[in-house]
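Try this one yourself first.
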């Protein structure tokens, strides 16, 4: 497994509608590499978590790690819409995973981060899941990949193959043997296990390789590359070698004290996943699910290491900003929850790393920043004035000095 990530660059994939361009910077524009990791909570090694993540950890040590960064909404679609539009759900109307913000009032006119950069002459390209959906494999991109934001997107699978190994002929996960839960997603979509496939046979590897190929090319304009890694999103499948990193008899499970809900009102004591959490513990599957989440994180870390290695070899590392984020946190049985969908820290807190090229500042910041803040911050780092429609706060001062004063709270 690779353990080095040097001279990182900010990566984001995007291409969009041409907007009135601002004056070009006198110096050579910086590129951006954005790496989005689906359902990645704060369990990375750099945040003192139990996951083995040497590549992400090295990236964190090479830039600024924000340990107290929070999603705007702890669900994939509204989290990513807020991050990529720089606007709150109150403005966009996108509060849940259902629906397309472009179909809501004012949605067609919203200018996403890749669209803004495209108007400044950036080549915006995406692979994997950046908005709520990845592009897909059909001739027409999936609408929730927001195709208008990109010059092009990679067509292909994400995550890993192997789901048929853990489901019966009706698509029901083998671990619960057809037990009926109140959620159809819980009944069919949540399962885990090690697969016999090589890393290079997975969709997430192909996503990273597509981005790496793009980085190897000659560029006559600055680029914005966005690479969306799907694991550790459900189903928690990864090559068996990553499961072997976490022997079941050595795992530490998330804390679940008996009095955890003594100060919680009844209405907040359970959601659709609580029934599954109780059953998973009852049948002894909780440790296996935790093992699978950790294995999926380490698999994602390996893929990210490949991408960053290729950035370094491309000759663009010294002129590229690298940004890595998880779209929200994730519960694994704590608080009687799995997945996200709560406003507890376990679901809102996720890693955020910003690495400037060259001799950029390194360190860690515990400032309470929001993913809403990424859009205006990145524009400042690239030398562009933030437009008035952005609702986040510019934390570029923290990128220069992680100990700088920060008067804001995450929104």
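Now uncover the answer:
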């Amino acid at each position: 497994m690779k353990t080095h990530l040097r001279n990182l660059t900010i990566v984001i994939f995007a291409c969009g509608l041409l907007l009135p361009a601002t004056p070009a910077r006198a110096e050579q524009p910086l590129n951006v590499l954005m790496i989005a990791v689906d359902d990645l909570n704060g369990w990375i090694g750099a945040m003192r978590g139990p996951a083995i993540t040497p590549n992400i950890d090295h990236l964190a040590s090479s830039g600024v790690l924000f340990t107290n960064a929070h999603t705007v909404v702890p669900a994939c679609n509204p989290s990513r819409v807020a991050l990529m539009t720089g606007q709150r759900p109150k403005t966009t109307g996108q509060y849940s995973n259902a629906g397309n913000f472009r179909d809501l009032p004012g949605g067609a006119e919203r200018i996403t981060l890749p669209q803004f950069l495209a108007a400044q002459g950036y080549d915006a390209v995406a692979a994997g899941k950046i908005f709520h959906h990845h592009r897909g494999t059909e001739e027409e991109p999936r609408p929730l990949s927001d195709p208008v934001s990109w010059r092009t997107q990679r067509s292909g699978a994400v995550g890993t193959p192997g789901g048929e190994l853990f489901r019966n002929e009706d698509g029901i996960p083998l671990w619960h043997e057809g037990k009926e839960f109140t959620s159809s997603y819980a009944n069919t979509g949540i399962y885990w296990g090690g697969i016999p496939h090589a890393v290079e046979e997975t969709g997430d590897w192909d996503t990273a390789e597509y981005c790496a190929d793009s980085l190897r090319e000659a560029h006559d304009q600055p680029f914005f590359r966005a690479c969306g890694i799907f694991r550790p999103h459900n189903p928690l499948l990864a090559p068996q070698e990553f499961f072997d990193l976490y022997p079941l008899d050595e795992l530490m499970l998330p804390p679940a004290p008996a009095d955890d809900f003594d100060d919680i009102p009844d209405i907040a004591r359970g959601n659709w996943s609580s029934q599954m959490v109780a059953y998973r513990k009852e049948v002894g599957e909780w440790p296996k699910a935790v093992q699978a989440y950790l294995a999926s994180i380490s698999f994602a870390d390996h893929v990210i290491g490949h991408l960053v290695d290729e950035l370094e070899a491309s000759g663009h590392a010294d002129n590229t900003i690298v940004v890595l984020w998880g779209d929200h946190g994730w519960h694994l049985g704590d608080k009687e929850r799995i997945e996200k969908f709560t406003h507890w820290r376990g679901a809102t807190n996720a890693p955020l790393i910003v690495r400037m090229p060259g001799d950029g500042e390194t360190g860690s910041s515990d400032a309470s920043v929001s993913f809403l803040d990424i859009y205006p911050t990145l524009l400042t780092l690239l030398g562009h004035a933030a437009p008035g429609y952005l609702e986040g706060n510019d934390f570029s001062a923290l990128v220069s000095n992680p100990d700088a004063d920060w008067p804001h709270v995450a929104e």
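Discussion: The CA atoms of residues 105 and 269 lie 34 Å apart. The longest strand covers residues 31-37.
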